[in-house]
Amino acid sequence: MQRIAIKTSRRTELVDITRRIQEVVQQSGVKSGICVVYVPHTTAACTVNENADPDVARDILATLADLIPESGNYRHIEGNADSHIKATWCGQSETLIIEDGRIQLGRWQGIFFCEFDGPRSREVWVKVVPTG
Amino acid sequence: MQRIAIKTSRRTELVDITRRIQEVVQQSGVKSGICVVYVPHTTAACTVNENADPDVARDILATLADLIPESGNYRHIEGNADSHIKATWCGQSETLIIEDGRIQLGRWQGIFFCEFDGPRSREVWVKVVPTG
Amino acid sequence: MQRIAIKTSRRTELVDITRRIQEVVQQSGVKSGICVVYVPHTTAACTVNENADPDVARDILATLADLIPESGNYRHIEGNADSHIKATWCGQSETLIIEDGRIQLGRWQGIFFCEFDGPRSREVWVKVVPTG
User: ipTM greater than 0.90, yes or no?
Assistant: First the structure.
């Protein structure tokens, strides 16, 4: 398992980590297999979506903020109940396919770390599973 | 990795791909392992849910349309911001368990391709990982 | 594949299954790999979130109930359309990383079974995939 350090700069933010995940896979030397990207936090997540137009990430965050407002009728008293709920919305892991020594992504896809309670120092864990 | 071609016929639609995924697993000859189903698009997704009553799929799509309307206060100018957000809601991959040469599903479960910006020609990628 | 039996006691409920999943991994003897946790139901799911403050689970369930009410304009006539939609929100599987013979979790993370149409007798399926 490899650990990637991430420094976020806003309360909510999508950080493109595609290149850093590809580097882990390339350094593993695995040509065919799968790659698990795992976020060990309860107020952050990861997702795959478009990395061509940054407005897509902005629209995802704005819609999430409308549906799950920061100030709501929450019992969790740390002021980040919305962050926990958004994390469960997006999910803590992505499982990706490796062929030819690289993660296979669609033309417009990038891998994003989703910060929902920043700014913070965060980690992403990456596990490469070879096949054949 | 195997590629499955899918032709969707509506803007939003859940397409049952259970049988086609089972065929890929059977052709692989793998008896025990896992199967990663991956959608290489940013306005489509996959999910597992009931395939007995088609009203379940209809209710999922209708509820998503209520929560994430097609016309909203979006910045992404291609008119499909809602499609990107729905894709992140559902997720781009499913990881399934293989035993006895077949994907193990619950009694009422089917695997669905989720179209959120169709009709289009789409792909699903399938990777089989054997164990033991 | 190992099966874990779960008995839920309310209509919606998050049940902490972290210890039981860790036991399956330890009994497998696998030191390094991944672990797939799979829910074979269409009105239940699994997620990873905070297990220190039970108010986090309560806030997740309350927010889901606000967004996807039990009584809505649904076509599915069994009275649990909301349960199916919540299941797709949370997802049917989690993929976790194993090192040193244990699932690696963040400091505040626990693995939860999400009941959305209980009380019922349920199952969780666990598959351990060794690497190297």
Answer: yes
